[in-house]
Design goal:
The protein is α+β, with helices and mostly antiparallel strands. The protein folds into 2 domains: 61 residues; 70 residues, Beta-lactamase Inhibitory Protein, Chain:B, domain 1 (2-Layer Sandwich). It has 4 helices and 4 strands; from the N terminus they run H-H-H-H-E-E-E-E. A 4-stranded antiparallel sheet has the order 1-2-3-4, covered by helices on one side. Strand 1 and strand 2 form a beta hairpin. The radius of gyration is 23 Å and the shape is elongated. The relative contact order is 0.11.
């Protein structure tokens, strides 16, 4: 039930933004004539350019790093929240995720790995984060831990 509500909300958002833009331009025309249309259209174009610039900056930073690499998988796991979009996660990691699922299929699975071989696998549906899992490598059983000042056996 919960996932159906989220999918419905995403579809409403895809309809609401263009509809609100048209309503804004019409209201500006009725209130101020063609100069209102010019101001409303200019504001909408500025809003689109800001989002485009944000997206391009995130992708530019991600292009400079290896695919699927993150500084700390544990910190990424702590920062993730359900419902954030893929661009937000790419901005947080500053790297594109390694695609784990088959291409062009839903849900999309991306993985980010750190230097200690810990990794976070994120599941996205329609571009929104649904769930994620942190996997840390197991420590070898024969490793001996010593306290400081105690000689190793």
């Amino acid at each position: 039930m919960r996932s159906c509500v989220k999918i419905g909300a995403m579809q409403i958002q895809k309809i609401f933004v263009p509809l609100a833009s048209v309503v804004l331009v019409v209201a500006a025309y009725r209130a101020y004539g063609w100069s209102g249309v010019a101001i409303a259209t200019g504001a909408l174009v500025m809003w689109l350019l800001l989002h485009f610039t944000r997206m391009m900056q995130a992708l530019k930073r991600a292009a400079e790093r290896p695919i699927g690499f993150v500084d700390s998988a544990v910190m990424l796991n702590a920062k993730l929240r359900p419902g954030v979009n893929l661009l937000h996660v790419v901005t947080m990691t500053r790297a594109l995720g390694e695609l784990v699922s088959p291409k062009d299929s839903q849900p999309e699975l991306f993985r980010w790995t750190d230097a200690s071989e810990s990794f976070v696998t994120c599941e996205f549906r329609q571009g929104k984060l649904v769930k994620w899992e942190l996997v840390r490598p197991t420590q070898p059983e024969d490793a001996v831990t010593t306290t400081p000042g105690t000689p190793a056996p």
